């Protein structure tokens, strides 16, 4: 079983978070107590009054933390290297309830790259699934994927499709993910 380290924090300023698992917005007031249950990728998962919420890394100061550092990108990227860079970037996206990245969880069903007209930039197509079809965090995860991949050099467009066929199951997880989760 995975041992989790929790850290108590005080909400230092009003901040908007997303409730887990439905993704609805929730406002936290200054002075509320919370526990950090996960600080992976570019966000924090907090436990506040028995409710899990996701705090964007850009709002890390609201809990007395510094924003997670952005992935260092090379100055020059050749077209043939974009695919590897996209996959590295996808490994920085996490399900807010599970301390494993979406690649190791097996949530990426497709990642195709095609040159755009002119040949200097590419379009990326990603098919992404969720561990449960009713998960309200799907849009948040898809938005994070879009934002991070679109920020990569030479990526001019991205389309992220949520897919549920075939349905996700544990067999899609990597061995590393199973070990991390104590399976």
Structural descriptors:
three-stranded mixed β-sheet; GMP Synthetase, Chain A, domain 3; FeS assembly SUF system protein SufT; MIP18-like; six-stranded antiparallel β-sheet; 3 helices; globular; Fe-S_Maturation_MIP18
Number of helices: 3
CATH architecture of the largest domain: 2-Layer Sandwich
- Across the major sheet, the strand order is 1-4-5-6-2-3
Biggest beta sheet summary? 6 strands, antiparallel
Instruction: Tell me the strand percentage band.
Output: 25-35%
The CATH homologous superfamily of the largest domain = Fe-S cluster assembly (FSCA)
CATH topology of the largest domain: GMP Synthetase, Chain A, domain 3
> What would CATH call the class of the largest domain?
Alpha Beta
Instruction: Characterize the overall form.
Output: globular
The low-confidence parts are: none
Class derived from helix and strand content? alpha+beta
Rg from C-alpha positions? Answer: 17 Å
Residues in helix, %: 10-25%
Order of helices and strands: EEEEEEHEEHEH
Distance between the termini: 8 Å
Q: Provide the number of structural domains.
A: 2
The whole-number mean of residue pLDDT values reads 89
Counted beta strands = 9
Domain MIP18 family-like: 86-160
Protein name: FeS assembly SUF system protein SufT
Organism: Acidovorax delafieldii 2AN
InterPro entries: Fe-S_Maturation_MIP18 (IPR052339), FeS_assembly_SufT_put (IPR017776), FSCA_dom_sf (IPR034904), MIP18-like (IPR002744)
């Amino acid at each position: 079983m995975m041992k989790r380290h929790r850290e108590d924090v005080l909400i230092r300023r009003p901040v908007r978070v997303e409730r887990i698992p439905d993704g609805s917005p929730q406002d936290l007031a200054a002075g509320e107590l919370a526990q950090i249950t996960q600080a992976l990728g570019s966000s924090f998962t907090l436990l506040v009054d028995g409710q899990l919420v996701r705090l964007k890394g850009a709002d890390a100061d609201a809990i007395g933390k510094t924003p997670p550092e952005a992935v260092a990108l090379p100055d020059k990227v050749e077209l043939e290297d974009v695919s590897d860079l996209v996959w590295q970037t996808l490994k920085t996206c996490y399900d807010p309830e599970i301390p494993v990245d979406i690649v190791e969880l097996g949530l990426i069903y497709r990642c195709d790259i095609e040159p755009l007209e002119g040949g200097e930039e590419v379009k990326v197509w990603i098919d992404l699934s969720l561990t449960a079809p009713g998960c309200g965090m799907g849009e948040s995860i898809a938005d994070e994927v879009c934002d991070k991949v679109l920020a990569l050099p030479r990526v001019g467009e991205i389309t992220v499709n949520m897919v549920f066929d075939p349905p996700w199951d544990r067999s899609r997880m990597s061995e590393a993910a199973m070990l991390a989760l104590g399976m």
